[in-house]
Amino acid sequence: MEQFKSLTAKVLPLPIKDIDTDMIIPAQFLTSVSREGYGENLFRRLRDQDPQFPLNMPKYKDASIMLTDSNFGCGSSREHAVWAILDAGFKVVISKSFADIFYSNSAKNGLVLVTLPEEIVDDLLLEAKNKELLLSVDLENQQVQNEKQIYPFTYDAFRRHCILNGLDDIDYILSAKSEIADFRTKQSSKQTVSTLVINH
Asked: Nearest to residue 166, comparing CAs of 122, 128, 112?
């Protein structure tokens, strides 16, 4: 998993509520167990139906921050939705709220999800629609910043540590290998002492 500490990038606005995982990556494109290649079909159905869908518009090209309305990532638990967003070049999604399973899948894959108050998201969506909007997202200090203001956000401490250090769940366990070995040695010593006591 890639490390993420901070990012300043262009924003792609998606002022849509209840974007589900089938909208993010339609089921017919779930053809691989690899994490690569899903980005080209991100929001494919919506992009094909609407020429003015933001991902079709040149002014949002190279955006790395997605800005959405509430309940983003609802629906089925497919992890492919997270893979598609990352593969398309997005590092951060900012929303009013996220579906729980999507939030968990994102954290485990290094996609940073930021929850901000409704009125702030509404203001930023309007701004991003009317002009090019750049935002800075700082996970280390847990804040989003534009040219006018700083917006603090909260983040799960364990997942924050993992993303800052580029650790997936397995990497995190391996990073504690020496502590695990010490624990096993101590446990083994305790068992040996207990056996000696019992035998006497």
From this structure: 112
